[in-house]
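FORM 7B: Structural annotation worksheet

SECTION A. Query
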Amino acid sequence: MSEVPEVRPPVVTPMRVVIAVCLIAPFVAMLWVGSYSKTDPEFIGIPFFYWYQMLWVLISTALTMTAYQLWQRDQRARASKKGGASE
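SECTION B. Predicted structure
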């Protein structure tokens, strides 16, 4: 009797690429210091250098929450495919 090999979903999927971009974007933005090492434009009297970094705190939070939600959706989809295939 020949045994049917187990079919696994691909490891790299478009959703996982989006998750990676959401998690990597804040690091790239903060490590590219030349893009924000200036004082102008000011926002309510706060130099650009400071308000840009504080804005990325909020953006990073939103991107991390998005990545988490996408990861949960991906895991549920994989579990349902696995459960459906074995029955």
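SECTION C. Observations
The CA atoms of residues 79 and 85 lie 10 Å apart. The chain has a mean pLDDT of 86.

SECTION D. Sign-off
Analyst initials: ____
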